[in-house]
Amino acid sequence: MHIRTNDTVVVLSGRDKGKQGKVMHVDPKGKKVLVEDVLVAKRHKKPRKQGEPGGIITKESPIYADKVMRVCPKCDKPTRPAHKINKNGDKVRVCKKCGAEIQ
Questions:
Q1: 86-to-13, 74, 91, 103 alpha-carbon distances in Å
Q2: What is the Cα–Cα distance from 46 to 50, expressed in whole angstroms?
Q3: pTM assigned to the model
């Protein structure tokens, strides 16, 4: 996958189009990512134990990884990272627009 945990991404389509957020979890098998403050759903939670609070909680839902794109930290534009080998022989991600290395 072209997205990793702690990457900053922008949503390309859907009801949250244009929103930016940090990736909290990546599911490569399901091809989904969990982005904070994107695709927030409300759930009604019933208290299960005595003293446990119930009510309406909000939580993020997974979104398909092909609906988000990585944001370059240097040029602050959405880009799909390219892969190159640096001088040390390590494979690194590189911004296609400005050429900066992405951590």
A1: 33, 18, 7, 13
A2: 11
A3: 0.82
